[in-house]
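lol so apparently i was supposed to do this last week
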Amino acid sequence: MNNKYWYKDMVFYQIWPRSFKDGNGDGMGDLYGVYEKLDYIQSLGCDGIWFSPLYPSPGVDCGYDISDYLDIAEEFGGMEAFEKVLDGAHKRGMKVIMDLVVNHTSTEHEWFKKSRQRIEPYTDYYIWRPAKPNGKLPNNWDSLFEGKAWQWDDVRKEYYMHLFAIEQADLNMDNPLVREEVKKVLKFWLDKGVDGFREDVITFISKKEGLPDDYIMPASKGFNYFNHGPHLHEYLEEFKRDVFSKYDCMTLAEAPMVTPKKALQYIDESNEPVLDMMIQFASQEADCFFSDYSHLPFSLRKLKRAYTLWQTGLEGKAWNMLYIENHDHPRIVSRYGSDAYRAESAKMLAVSYLFLKGTPFVYQGQEIGMTNWYPKDPSLYEDVQTIWQYEHVATNKSDEKRLQRLWFGSRDSARTPVQWSDEKHAGFTTAEPWFHVNENYKEVNVARQEKEEDSVLNFYRKAIQLRKQLSCVRDGIYQEYNKYSSKLFTYSMTDDKQRILVVCSFSDKNENWKVPSGFDLSQAELILNNYKDTDTTQLKPYETRVYLMK
Ligand code: GLC
Ligand code: CA
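anyway here it is w/ calcium ion bound
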């Protein structure tokens, strides 16, 4: 019998292809490199892979600007290399999910090229509006990446909407022909054998009728008019009915600003869900507001509120997606942990989320505790969003402050090549890499950590293996302790057979610790920890422990 909830037993690994591994020696990560590393990924205990976009793309937003949905980019090895990887993954019992980016296409996509010339049936594939009589933009919405959400097109003599980069034109999902195209894309990949999709900013696909001006939001104007828009549920239902329901596949929707209550409208398992899981952002906002670029001091209480809200909010109704890193946020050790206690805090951060209920995702390089990259020269940054922010946000600050904003707020901090060894270019490539390698690669790399028994890498392996053995992590109920502590995160998971107590110190000092009442440590087995000796009244910097109660 097929288990339709197979993803509940899995741990996924996210590959951001440009920086994972170069297999053909041209400086750019590719699918040959992925093929070489399938055993490595499996050795982590990961049994699923999420690929950030692999499709042909001009690369303005590193692949999130797609110019052909039905192919694989040459630079990644083309379709042949993809099929080999897919087959190799399936042979190992691993699942593969693709990124589905259908809020927008690249302006290099054929549909856009025809739409701007009003060639049917493409005329209404995008959101075109004439200029207002007074020459003003069609409305006052902001792009999340570059200025206002409108760009003038000299061919069509109209504006098109772009919620992201100028070269990412928003599709008009209200047009049934566009929805048919999306379904064609879904079927194409599912027929090829992929096991599901991570759906990029899918909650933005339905814009409020009439595209009204936004007089409420002080910044990111329009957000409330395009996030969870009027027809979102209806379109997702249509994709589910016409495509997903006919395949054994999983869907995971990226959902900025979503709350558990809102999420349940889409993922409640007892109520004809239109999606399987959603990617919440609350747990990424403990050191910033809305965008990582607005860097604030880290607040553990904010982080704990996010975890507790989602663990309890979905309990018994829907399934969480768990993550601490991806390609859109700087490295977690440098954010919620400490570069000075790199290994200790990387291990603690692993425990902080790997024993929660849900399906965990591990982002490439996270498993060896990669840190942010601290270049001295702002011109080295590549990311379109970062470059715009640097040029337009807080420009009155000192050069030093602006550089720090890049270090702690740029997506590029997590996009440097994976550090495979201490060889040249960190063993990522034999050519000049497309992007800069973090200087700490001699110290932080996979080859070295393979040899060290207590490395971050081996800790991840152990933690993932343990999580898979513990029924209380998969089926149990979450409870939080020391709720008001700004240093310690303590939680338990309990099912009818088992109970674990998880302790995480987010402090760079020793912290006094009191075992929560109801737990007798003389009756417990310490199954995972990151220091050699343990003291029941004190925790060392970034110490973490998992106890199995007897
Ligand atoms: C999502 C992606 C991000 C991309 C954006 C536009 O947030 O994760 O990388 O830039 O959508 O597609
Ligand atoms: Ca390559």
